[in-house]
Amino acid sequence: MSTYNYPKFGAGLWHFANYIDRYAVDGYGPALSTIDQIMQAKQVEDLSYVDLPYPFTPGVSLSEVKDALQQAGLKAIGITPEIYLRKFSRGAFTNPDPRARAEAFTLMNEAAEVVREIGANYVKVWPGQDGWDYPFQVDHKNLWKLAVDGMRDLAGANPDVKFAIEYKPREPRVKMTWDSAARTLLGIDDIGLDNVGVLLDFGHALFAGESPADSAQLILDRGRLFGMDVNDNLRGWDDDLVVGTVHMTEIFEFFYVLKINNWDGVWQLDQFPFREDHIDAANLSIRFLKHIYRALDKLDIAALQAAQAEQNPLAAQRIVQNALLTSIQE
Amino acid sequence: MSTYNYPKFGAGLWHFANYIDRYAVDGYGPALSTIDQIMQAKQVEDLSYVDLPYPFTPGVSLSEVKDALQQAGLKAIGITPEIYLRKFSRGAFTNPDPRARAEAFTLMNEAAEVVREIGANYVKVWPGQDGWDYPFQVDHKNLWKLAVDGMRDLAGANPDVKFAIEYKPREPRVKMTWDSAARTLLGIDDIGLDNVGVLLDFGHALFAGESPADSAQLILDRGRLFGMDVNDNLRGWDDDLVVGTVHMTEIFEFFYVLKINNWDGVWQLDQFPFREDHIDAANLSIRFLKHIYRALDKLDIAALQAAQAEQNPLAAQRIVQNALLTSIQE
Amino acid sequence: MSTYNYPKFGAGLWHFANYIDRYAVDGYGPALSTIDQIMQAKQVEDLSYVDLPYPFTPGVSLSEVKDALQQAGLKAIGITPEIYLRKFSRGAFTNPDPRARAEAFTLMNEAAEVVREIGANYVKVWPGQDGWDYPFQVDHKNLWKLAVDGMRDLAGANPDVKFAIEYKPREPRVKMTWDSAARTLLGIDDIGLDNVGVLLDFGHALFAGESPADSAQLILDRGRLFGMDVNDNLRGWDDDLVVGTVHMTEIFEFFYVLKINNWDGVWQLDQFPFREDHIDAANLSIRFLKHIYRALDKLDIAALQAAQAEQNPLAAQRIVQNALLTSIQE
Amino acid sequence: MSTYNYPKFGAGLWHFANYIDRYAVDGYGPALSTIDQIMQAKQVEDLSYVDLPYPFTPGVSLSEVKDALQQAGLKAIGITPEIYLRKFSRGAFTNPDPRARAEAFTLMNEAAEVVREIGANYVKVWPGQDGWDYPFQVDHKNLWKLAVDGMRDLAGANPDVKFAIEYKPREPRVKMTWDSAARTLLGIDDIGLDNVGVLLDFGHALFAGESPADSAQLILDRGRLFGMDVNDNLRGWDDDLVVGTVHMTEIFEFFYVLKINNWDGVWQLDQFPFREDHIDAANLSIRFLKHIYRALDKLDIAALQAAQAEQNPLAAQRIVQNALLTSIQE
């Protein structure tokens, strides 16, 4: 029987939705309401938090959501305003039309209000439509200014609320403005406010060609790691696969960096199980994450740090494999 | 005034649809019927052919489509059965459920019947859901057998109809079974029927890490180039951008190979102008393609072939730039 | 104490060389002779085979190599003619100069003779300089014909020797002619001889966007898997890292496919430990491969095949993780 | 006859060297001395500047270099210390061995002295060996600190000399520390000195998944664009191909951004013509760059800016194609 003091686990509520894409335009399953999704999330063992897209599905009120969360034993960690729907398809902060920008601002302000009312940690800002598709499409100086100014206005208007920018290289735009850890930190410097930080997605960092562990360290060193989530992919796209199915070593390194920096937030899932059972996908993920947690406990950190001081990858990997693949020492 | 004898231009009818994706789940614009889309296509200058997804949108009959095409001055070049909707989301030919495979077969047979009735050139087979998402998900031997057997059954049951497989590395599956020119030709060898060939998409070849010109040559050498379409991307995804906006030289090389092989089919567009005016996107594309056509006329093919015999890229590029960028010799 | 009947392990002899690249033009260490390298290989625990580049380093004779191998307790599995040195920098089989092609043929014939004399399994043909660098540089039809004809001539002239083509997408050419599993099999069909097959490099398959397990199955199904080697990379380049340091699950799937097909050849390393201790790199690799071998023994293959019959990735991954990460079931 | 007031053109002197790589270990041609390379550069039409690797080849003195440059009608724009040779193969600034770091510092200080003596614009710092190869190899916090502190020490010790960091995602390290425009700017902020800036390489930006035009704007907005060079590639590697052979539109956008920001530095080449005539490669490049310069003159900038204000890619591309492909309006 486990005696481990595991971290809290969470998931984007969309983990329990059905999806649609440009080919399966009738969706991978029937549409589910926010409440339906919460009831699915309830069935996952060991899930404590969800990140909620906002607005909720039509006809669902905030009080209903609060009730459903309570009934499901779940808390809201973040609220994600849907600044990527049709009206923002040419951008939220960076939309060329000032009316669309104003609408995006309004929606994000509402999300901040929901954060207050529901007691969540942050508004998650994922500006997937902010960017460009073609060479020569935009004035890059102006685009970046719109992105930075928009975030500053939003965060400045809500100084009591945290805003966590989730960067990604691309999709749905061919190129997203907030595309990498470094660029996001550069923008945060330009914004100049304490309540703007980063939601670091493991898969987005991989897709961006980063070492997710390195990105975590860089963001932590500037005090901006407001949240994180995990998943997996083949490095060429944001596949949002179940965590641990491809990159075991790098997810281990990611959590190792969080541990040595004493980061003790929620371990969240951001996965899109298009064709899979959603509850089973979450359970398999958490089973794997618990293995990672225990492996961190077995890891000889002093020896690893000695190997890293020499930048000796063979010594480091031997130590890591001993912890991750317990039976390798047979 | 132009005296050029331009090729016929065509487009996938979806060029004139509105799109949806996993984020903009309310779509980039209102849904349009098959007839609406044909009426949009009519407005493009110099468009002669369309490739029609099948089934048509709800309530639209074949005779209505035929009438609309006639009214628009358009012909059908291909019929594309939608073997990537919800019921085939776990695969068409390679679905693990034999009932879903049978349904896919039925739908593709119907598409063959529409080809006959509408006088199109081929059924385009785009098995975007055939493949896998995770390591260890499938028995690769069995998956490939299902893919090949399914195509053989379909083509064998319709010996009077051509079937053009459109390969792509991935999307919506993380990995598609028919992923490259070479693998598709290998499968066609295994199928062993004359009425199975390739629909070569320029952007898919780029995305697959191929030289589209080389892929065209390889397919032509085996007598299997049943059709082609063009677009553009940044090589990392099937962006379906407007042709000529990124890869001018490689699209020129692609059409050069078609020309020296006397391939005289329709120059088709496969583009998804998510956020752009669809008619303007088509017009800009055709304007560019006409420039390519004229540049081929200006190209000193004998000199180019001499440079290629020496594999001299500098000499070759100089000749190519002289034709493509006319004013470079100022 | 281990009671496992492990496979034989091997390595490309270059694993024990020092390297050079376009920046560190003075090399990552002093040059080592063929004999020096064999003496290093001797120090690796559990190494039985080496693949030998040919010609040997200056002044080293075949009989000296044979003696050194015997002294080291090693056998030659393959001979790799260096058809990528300066004189072949514009191609071996596909060089535009027929004299260079003739020289390449001569060198490869010599390699075949060394295979006979040393009792190796095959000539490994790695035509890294065969291909192109620029759009429009080559006549693709002619390039492919040169590649195929050259291999046919070579194998036809040496019907008693096996020739294993090692494909890779690129490097040193921007694009290699033998770039993927499917294209190589297509070429082998065109060659039409039984003594031409494939040396499947795990990392090259990853780099080519393939599932290495799928590539193995495809090649096995045509009876052409003459050899294989392993390493690791980040999918974007042929990094030749130590096996198991990045892609644990996919290397496991690769060996799983070999096992269920009863492939019982040598498990070879093709690694370039530029900055690492070469012997330690080999030992760490073999330690990891033994873990894989034992994990295959623990794998519930019947349950996995049942999951694969349903194409259920969650069930499959659970079974796989149980075998690979033994302590995950705690 | 041309009446254009073209910019000055330059090239890294290595454009005229012969290369070596990990396969063609005997090199793509005989080694050439610094003086030999200058004499080759002299033969290029319209070349005014070179960037000189330091130390010069064995036996060549600074005064000989100065004489040769004068004789060739060339000036030095930058000095590039070779902090990527064997002794720095485990890193220059980030080497785990403090003695190696001290040696790197000494070499770069010498390069600063050469900049003063030869009247060049900057020391170009290209730390290609600073980074890591394996997950878990390094302590990311420490690695970044070494990189930043090393640059600060160097620039602080030479306040009269400019230092231009040339970032690249990778090669020869699997991952370089200074990997992108944004991260480099972040590091420059941390360094806090005015004499540290960026050498922006067009191909490195493409390889990093950036829009080179956007990167230029971002760096210009912070006043850090100390130099730039151009080439081309297929986005997946730093191929250092001849400029204009693949990405015509994006190189045009890059120079457009430089123009509207009134950046008036030298247009430099950073190309590795492994298998090509080096002088012809430079001439072809400059011919293309002059075309770009003239196309900028033809570009309807007011109309383009209006299109960009609407983020209308079709309007923008039409305007761009009119300028780049003059005869498209036929």
From TrEMBL, chains A, B, C, D:
Q: Which GO terms describe its biological process?
A: L-lyxose metabolic process; rhamnose catabolic process
Where does this protein have coiled-coil stretches?
A: none
PROSITE patterns reported in the protein's UniProt record: XYLOSE_ISOMERASE
Q: In what residue span(s) does the Xylose isomerase-like TIM barrel domain sit? A: 62-290
What Pfam families does UniProt report for this protein, alphabetically?
AP_endonuc_2
Q: Name one GO molecular function term.
A: L-rhamnose isomerase activity
For this UniProt record, the keywords arranged alphabetically read as follows:
Carbohydrate metabolism, Cytoplasm, Isomerase, Manganese, Metal-binding
Is the keyword Cytoplasm in the record?
yes
Compartments in which it is found: Cytoplasm
Please give the chief subcellular localization of this protein.
cytoplasm
Q: What is the recorded name of this protein? A: Sugar phosphate isomerase/epimerase
What organism does the UniProt record list as the source? Winslowiella arboricola
Question: Lineage from the top down?
Answer: Bacteria, Pseudomonadati, Pseudomonadota, Gammaproteobacteria, Enterobacterales
